[in-house]
Amino acid sequence: MTMPNERSRAVVLTRDFLVALSRDNALPEKVRRDAKFLLRHYPTRDDVILAGKIEEQAESMPLEALGPVFSSSLT
After folding, report:
1. What is the DSSP string of 10-75?
2. pLDDT tens digit string along 4-41?
3. Between 55 and which of 12, 19, 68, 74 could a Cys-Cys bridge form, CB atoms 3.0 to 4.6 Å apart?
C-alpha cells in the first residue's frame, strides 16, 4: 500500500519529469508539447504539500475513513 508521503513524492517527481521532457530539445515537438499541456493542469510541489497539510488537519471530516491522499512531507 502506498503511503501518503510516497504518493506526494511520486507526484512531485513526476512533475519534475514532465518539466524535463518539455525542455528537452532532443525529443520530438509532440512529446514536448504534450508534456507542457499536462503541466498546465498538474499540481506544483507547493500544491501537493498544501493538500497534505489540509488533509492531515481534517481528521474530523467524514472522509477520514478514506485516509489522506497526500502528505505535507516528501520523505
Report:
1. HHHHHHHHHHHHHH-TTS-HHHHHHHHHHHTTSPPHHHHHHHHHHHHH-TTSGGGGG--S--S---
2. 899 999 999 999 999 999 999 999 999 999 999 999 98
3. 68
The Cα 28–Cα 4 span in angstroms is 34
Residue 2 C-alpha cell reads as 502506498
Q: Is 4 helix (H, G, I), strand (E, B) or coil?
A: helix
CB neighbours of residue 71 within 10 Å? 21
